Prior knowledge:
By secondary structure, the protein is mainly alpha-helical. It has one domain. The protein is built from seven helices and three strands; from the N terminus they run ααααβαβαβα. It has helices at about 5-10, 15-25, 35-50, 60-70, 85-95, 105-110, 115-135; strands spanning about 75, 100-105, 110-115. It has a three-stranded antiparallel beta sheet with strand order 1-3-2. Helix 2 (about 15-25) crosses helix 7. The two termini are about 30 Å apart. The model is unreliable at about 40-55 and about 130-135 (pLDDT under 50).
Amino acid sequence: MTDQHTDWLQEQPAAAAILAAYAEREALLPKRPARSAATSVAATEAVVTAGEAEPAAGQDNSADEAENADAWVPRIAAVEGLEAAQLSQLHGGLIARGYLKYELFGRQIGMRYRLTPEGRRAADSSTGQATTAEAAA
C-alpha cells in the first residue's frame, strides 16, 4: 500500500467508518472450516475421475453461490452522516485503493463485499486510534 493510499484514508474519516462497519459485519459471519488447496484439488479430481461432468455453462448453481456468498457481506447501504452519493464514491475509492473487494453472486444474491488484508489492517488501526483517543478524552 502506498503512502498516497494511507494519506487518502486519513483524509477521509468517512471511508475509515465504512471499513469499520465492514469489519464489524465480517466479525458476525459464521466461521467456516478452512479447506486446504490439496483437499479442493482431490475433491475435484474425484469428481472428474468418477465420470461426473462439471456443471454446464449457464446451469443454476444457486446453492453453491449462496454458500460462497455467506463469507461475504452485503453492501453497507447507510452510514450516519453520509449521503448515498458519498457512500458510493467512498466504496469506489476503497475498492480502487485495495481496501475492499467485491464479488457478484448472480441476480438472487447480488453484490457482496469483503475487506482485503490491507483493509482489515486499516480498519483495526482506525478502530484502535479511535479507542485510544476516546480513552484519552
